[in-house]
Amino acid sequence: MNSDPVSQKIKVYLNSLIEQNRFNLSFKLPSENQLAHLFKSSRTPVQHALAELKEEGVIYRVHGKGTFVCNQPQSEDSFSVCLSIPHLNTRYIKKIAKGIQDYFNEKGVVLLISITNDDPETEENVINYVLSNGFQGLILYPIISDTYHDGLFKLALKKYPVVVVARQLPKINFSSVHSDNYGQLQNLTDYLVGKGHKYIGFIKESNMYENSVYEDRERAYREYISQRFGEQSIHILEVNPIQENDDVFPNKWLDPLVAEFLVQNPDMTAIITMSVAAGAVFRLLKKRSELENTISVAIIDDPEDAESALEYKNDVVVLDQNPYQIGWESANQLYNQICHNALTQDIIIENTIRVINAM
Fold first, then answer.
1. Averaging pLDDT over each range in 28-32, 58-62, 93-97, which range is the top one?
2. Same domain, 199 and 100
3. Full residue range of the structural domain in which residue 50 is found
């Protein structure tokens, strides 16, 4: 056994993930890069953990395809569904997956989780695999861009049971379970204004992905601020949430962008930020002692670095989209489609604003 504590920590996590999916056919584990990113390590301890699991006969690896759990027998009275998901790197997505897993575990449904790495070709391959291998339904967390490919239209033509989670695909009549992304940003901005803030910045995901979630949030922020304070009060930093080769020090590349944003907008008293950028925001604000007691931070979803939020010396609030409930409700909707011929629905899960640090 390898004595490296990081390697063993990764192995414990993988064993837990495998146990949660012990009846899944061809369950695919996260990639080496994803695991290194998750544990903020190099790939070496990840490779050690995977090597031990392979030696123990728990997993097998297919070159160019990924790492899979060795198949275990499926119960005769169960059926199989698939969750197609971009990654398992953030708390938000992991909570959605946990809600889905818990629901299907209670129902005795076999769940295959397939990670697409935000690649449209991989997503289409997953759909084709599901259609060709006797799965009864699919929960689809779409890739980051609103991409419509042949696999999606094939599902629609077959009237295959599908639930889109955390997003909508308005061109196709699938059930969906998601947040009101426009309303949540209006509510969050209104909350900050109610606390006396007039100069509110917004750090958001890049428009390069043409993602409806990001577009709705930006539109809500722009409309609220311009109507309340005028367009000159709109302060937006747009960043790409996906970076390659960012395994050891996640999101450090954001620091200079956030630093410049603060310098360019010295009158800001509050910042709304996506969770992936929250760590950079706290790092920069802590370094700028003259701003430490003046800027409040509002985060969309729980920050990945919870300690930084708790240690920050000013107000911190989280817009909680209730991802576990999103996952649970999406699984419930798919189950009802498969077992009770339920009609497609568009289900909106309410969000809450939660104070995690108030001075």
1. 93-97
2. no
3. 1-73
